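Dear Dr. H.,

I hope your travels went smoothly. While you were away I took the liberty of generating a structure for the chain from your last submission, since the lab meeting agenda had it listed for discussion. I wanted you to have the full record in hand beforehand rather than looking at slides cold. The sequence, exactly as received, is reproduced here:
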Amino acid sequence: MNLLDQYESYLTSQRRLAPGTVVNYLRDCRAFIEWCGYSVDNFAPAEVGERDVKGWIMSLSDHETPGCVGKKRKSSSVNTKAASVRAFFTWLKEVEEVVGVNPTKGVPRLKEPSHLPTYIHQPNMAQLVGELRAEALSDDYVVRRNAVLVLLLYATGIRLAEVTALTTANLAHDLGEVRVLGKGNKERIVPIVSGLRPLIEEYLKFTRQKICTNDNFSLFLTSKGEPMSRHQIERAVQQRLAEAGVKGKHSPHVLRHTFATLLLENGADIREIQELMGHSSLRTTQVYTHNSIASLKEVYATAHPRGRKREQ
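The corresponding predicted structure, in token form, is as follows:
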């Protein structure tokens, strides 16, 4: 068994990372190994130095984004790949003791431009929720399912991978909570707003009548009764947000950002938001305070007598 196979076993059995995360880690590490001129089977990590790591990072920065001609790879993408290799060498040094020096330790992250999370503003979201509530009682299963899907993502802020894994067993008996298995196999309980509970109840009844007769099934099914894949769920959300006229990104993550931002704007404590979102670090959650400040500036510029927008 080569080092990468051993690392995969470590990530899966001890770190208990999600399968998709493991695949990404291994892909990045394999790319680095091959860039250094080795195969996975003859990799000699002790011969890798800081210069090799820096050279690989520079080569990533100079290359185009796959599938995007003329567009350089983003710093954030390069940093993510570098983080995979950094974690690999940390394991080689501290767990396996294969290397005496971690060649990634002195390599800094590339500077990333600051981008505020994209979210749907409250008036637009209120209008969309009104439309979705009506669709959640449709006689068309797909329309009904997609409406409940979008409403649940907005109401709970859960991740795409988390909603993909949900079954009816994850729902509390009174539909007041949903039990979610997040990153690092960390379980958390997220409340479901009272207005959504009867719609979920009707959706479950409808699904049992039309699609699946079992009591325990994946929460979101195809019209053939099969669990929806991550890609199918993502596509369904993107299509519905596009139909609603949402500008910019249409990913499920936009609904997660909307959930957090609107909670903050309506007075929720940031530590409570952190717990609901399943963030391991408060720093991750704090990005939403910047969104809130940006929103306040927009209101100020529009409404204040000395606001720039009113002076023009």
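Two observations you may find useful: The chain has a mean pLDDT of 86. The longest helix spans residues 75-94.

With kind regards,
E. W.
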